[in-house]
Amino acid sequence: MDYVQQRKKSWKVLPEVYFGEEFQDNIVLKFGNPRTAVFAHLDTIGFTCRYHNQLVPVGGPDVQDGNILVGEDALGPIECTAHIVEDQLIHGFPRGIQPGTNLSYKQNIRVDDEYIQAAYLDNRLGVFNALEICEDLEDGLVVFSTYEEHGGGSVPFLAKFIYEKWGVRQALISDITWVTEGVKHHEGVAISLRDQFIPRKTYINKIVALAAESGVPYQLEVEGAGGSDGREIQMSPYPIDWCFVGAPEDNVHTPDEKVSLLDLEAMINLYKYLMQHL
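Above: the chain sequence. Below: its structure as tokens.
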């Protein structure tokens, strides 16, 4: 929110900002006469301290023994290692941590000529993409959602808000997907044709046709598992089409997530094209 307030006056169109208690921790930015909404989730995977030295996952972290975790409780800052003992996840901090304290991977950002590697690129890069779109967006919505990594919950009321207020019926999901045998680094942004959920074919066809027209490098993804904010849009009572469009990463939900800078650039460029032409 601080970034939006600092930057919005330099954007091509000054947005209306919807934020506050009635939106919980979500943010909606409205530019011009919106036709399409970009959804980017702000939350991440992580860990909640239970009792003694036990940890409970938030979402699905792929934690390895020895991963460094950080956080803070009422007694001060925390830096500790995660350990897996007899299939139980624990921390090695020398004192007890207050129950309910959240911990996350210690950040270590590495950038070279080809890749960015860090914790929480899912969904820091999805949020970065959404903010880049804001720079010259004339007509559209940018929606920053929450709870995506652990079951959802915010998108239903956000979908209700954008449909009932502006009649928006098209959505793009700005998130990060997986490198697989069919989706590779340096081959462009991935357009997901389906995951566990299947978006409407006519809308997906429109996205793929515009991508081909744009000249931006892209690749097509087909999966039978996984999900995103698109799942909650599809399950909502509102006739909103959706498509997941995002750069692929290696080392998913670890401290070492890795994304090609070429694919990230393609993601930003394709989103800008789609927001103009959808």
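Helices lie at 2-7, 121-134, 155-166, 201-214, 229-235, 261-277.
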